[in-house]
Amino acid sequence: MSQIPFALLECTLYSCIVYFIVGYHRSAACFFTFYLICFSATMVMGAIMRLNAFASPSMVVANAAGVFVFRMMTKYSGGTGTDVALRPKLQGNRL
Prior knowledge:
Helices cover 77% and strands 0% of the residues. It is built from 4 helices and no strands. Helix 1 crosses helix 2 and helix 2 packs antiparallel against helix 3. It is flat, with a radius of gyration of 18 Å.
């Protein structure tokens, strides 16, 4: 519970900067949806890393396991395709 105020501050700063730089639709509903997703992702990743630290016998093992878990989550999340893998899919969508 003590991480929530810091996560709110961190997500507020991140969301305010990134949302408008990227150029998303300028409406309050869209912004707060983006903010909620960022906040949820921050809380979930923090919980996963705390679980990893609790389950590991030492800090060295926890660091290695944390890197492995983070790499597997980013690899299998669906948003990390390479340019070569995406090129055939994007060529069919040209107007």
